[in-house]
Structure formats: structure tokens, C-alpha cells
Design brief:
- A five-stranded parallel beta sheet has the order 2-1-3-6-7, sandwiched between helices. A five-stranded parallel beta sheet has the order 9-10-13-8-14. Strands 4-5 form a two-stranded antiparallel ribbon.
- Helix 1 links the parallel strand 1 and strand 2.
- The protein is an alpha/beta fold and 456 residues long.
- Helix 2 runs parallel beside helix 3, helix 13 packs across helix 15 and helix 19 packs across helix 20.
- It folds into three domains: 115 residues, Rossmann fold, CATH 3.40.50.2300; 170 residues, P-loop containing nucleotide triphosphate hydrolases (Rossmann fold); 147 residues, Helicase, Ruva Protein, domain 3 (Orthogonal Bundle), CATH 1.10.8.60.
Amino acid sequence: MNAHQALIVDDEADIRELLNITLSQLGLGVTEAANLSEAKTLLAAQAFDFCLTDMRMPDGSGLELVNYIQQHCPAMPVAVITAHGNTELAVECLKAGAFDFVSKPVELTRLRSMVKTALQLRSEQAVPVDEAGLTGSSPVMSRLREQIGRVARSQAPIFISGESGTGKELVARAIHYLGPRANGPFIPVNCGAIPAELMESEFFGHRKGSFTGAIRDKQGLFQAADGGTLFLDEVADLPLPMQVKLLRAIQEKSVRAIGDSEEKPIDVRILSATHKNLQHEVQVDHFRGDLFYRINVIEIAVPPLRERHEDIPALAQIFLARFASEAGSSAPRLDSEAAKILAAYPFPGNVRELENILERAFTLCSGNVISATDLGLTSPAPTPQAQLTEPTSAASAVNTFVSDAGISLDQHLANIERAIIERTLEENRWNRSASATKLGLTFRQLRYKLSKLGIE
């Protein structure tokens, strides 16, 4: 008996025969159904590993079958065959839970690749919780992990929304490694960090001699992610000309390197994210609406830390254990007052800000207890909305100044700290014990700072 069983649903006998031959060549046992009613009867009587259905049938639609399968056989991937160019219907099927879709006329190479990917779905769908950003027992985090487990089973493009510092890339990684592409590459790219003039080459690659400076062939990000996942972080920062080219690559599932004469097929799942309101960006003509609807088939919203305060103790424990391991020491604990302050703080910078606060406290604390003084958060900071409307605090003013200068506040402070430590080390002829005493640090604290700042 074959290891995997497939169900083909189509009212045209010649199409069923072609699909049967194609799937049988992959080693699948194939059962055919000519209409929706027959398909439901077979699904109730037998277990299948994969279903491929046409969209139009005499007694219903493929979308109806997708919904039926989601209710009665949710672990089984189902793909639909749509008319050429009927993108809206394909997107509707993906939102309903379809694994993927193929357009008529069916490209057999694409079909074989899709079926192989579908059969690699993992049966275990628990999201790993060892990643700090996904840790937590709060209701919002439980829902997030449930969403991740569900969308990981499909090939639908996912848009991950959320404020800066919430852990959007961790969500993308979880979706990738829980899905059928887990053995393929996960390629993250910060769209805002690539110069506009280099974007086409970075995304699609180039051939040697195609332009001045192209001294060798270069593989693009799409080719590097072939068989895996391409994560477009800060996708709202893409310039409009690049958005057009990206849309074509996603629609055609092929790319052409600069200087190449032909397009090459690619098999890539697209995940994207931004901290901006992408719908607003579309309304003000900063982002193409057609691209938005292609990458936003399913949206996952990552909650801010202020909506999951009950997770802070567990997150703090993970971060402190990591810092201690890197410093070769035992992990300190928070005293009761420090824990209360963290519980009351709104964390405009989210999980990333919590990590930075605890890293500073770990460095400054004496012994194995972190006090409220070590945190440096004697009163709650204003919410992000208050910071936008009333930037009157000293911290807000500094942050605005530093941002205008083109450098983050964290980097600005790190540069100041590095200069002070290096000057003190030079004054003490690089005697670390004497330098630590002069700086008011323990030797362990100084050693940790030297490692963190990369001071040799």
C-alpha cells in the first residue's frame, strides 16, 4: 500500500486522469471524485494525506470543500485549481485554510513541487517557547501561538503587524520552522536597510558584466530563499519602483537577474512585517494597494508588552539567565520593589526595551539581587501615544535629537559608555581591576561591558 493517499476532485474525467498520473508518479495512492457530494462521502469513509480540488463543480465549489475539510479534516492540506488570473478567488481560498493553489493550465512541475511540500507538513504543531519573544501564558500569547500553528500549515503569504520590539521576526521564524519548509532556508531581509540603487540586484541577483562593478555573478535573495521562506521586514520602506518588481515576482513565481535573458522559476513563501500602518501607507500612496493585498492574505498581529504584563516575570528570568551565562556567573533575581516597577511600566519599546533595561540592571547590580535603583525606572514612562502628542520629557527630547542626528539613542549612549571605559582603561594602563574600581564597577561588571562593547 502507498505511504500517502491523495483525493482528486474534478468534474472533467480527462483532467482527473492527468492529475492521477502525475500524483501516482510521486508514489501516491490516488482516489477520484467527480463532484462535491462524492468527495464528502469519500472523506467521511477514508483518511487522506492530501486533497486537490477544482474550483467549479456541478454541485458546489472548491471553496465549499475547503471549508468542509477545515471543519472535518483540519490536519489534511487541500489545494485548489483556479482559472488563470482569478487571483481574488485563490486568495479567498487561502484565507479559508487552503494550503496553496495552482492556476489553469496546470504546470505539472509546479504541481509536483506543491504536493511534495504539502506532504512534508509536520504533525506536531506546538510553537517552541524557548524563544523569549514567544514566551508567556497570557491569553494574547496563547492566541498568537495558536495562530502561528494554524498558518504554518499553509503556503499563504502572511503579514505580521505590530509595534517595534514586539518580536515580529520571531513569529516569522516560528511560522517557517513549524511548516513544511522547515528544512529549507529562512532568509530575513530589512527592506529599509538596502540602498534603493542596489535593491534590484539584492533581491533578484545580477550577471557578471551587467553593470559597472558587477565583477561576478551574484545570487539574489529570492534565489537564496528558494525552497524556503523570504521574510521582508519593514516592507513599508520599499520604494514604489521596487514594489512593482516585487509584485511581479510574487505573482509569476519567477525572477530575472539583472543582465539575464530569461526568468527563472522560484519556490518561495513570502512573510512580511512592518511597524507602520500599512493600510494608511496605501491610502497616502506610499504603498501599492495591489501588493498590499498579495502579501496580506492573512494578518497576524503581535501584541505589545503592555497587553501581556503577566508574562514579564518569565521573560525577565529568561533574559537574566542569558546574561549570566554570557558573563560566566549566576543569574541574579529581582527584588519585590523592582518587580513592582516592571509590572507598572508601559514598555513603549516592548520586549526589546525590557531586554535592554534588564541588561543594564544586570551590569549595575551588586551581588545577586537587582533592586529598583538598578532598573533606573522609578516612575512609569509615558505611553507611546503620550510620547507622540507630548514629547516634553528629557528622554523624549534626547530621543528626538538623536533620531534627527541619524543615530539611535541606544547607539548614542553605547558610544559615550565606550569612550568613558576606554579612557579609564588607558589612564590605568589597561589594568582592568583598577579601572573597574575607578568606574565604580565590580570586576565582573567591567568584564561583561568589555565583551558587550567589543573592547579588546
